[in-house]
Amino acid sequence: MLSIIIPTYNEEKYLPTLLESIKDQDFKDYEIIVADNNSKDNTRQIAKKFSCRIIKGGLQSIGINNAAKVAENNILLILDADASLPKGFLKKNLTVFRGKNLDVASCYIKPRNAKIIDEITHMLSNLYYFSIKRISPFIPSFCFFIKREFFFKVGCFDEKIPWLIDLAFSNNLPKETKNDILPVHVELSIRMAYRLGRFKQTKLMFLAGFLRLLKKNYYGKYEY
Question: d(Cα 212, Cα 57) in Å, to the nearest integer?
Answer without folding.
Answer: 27
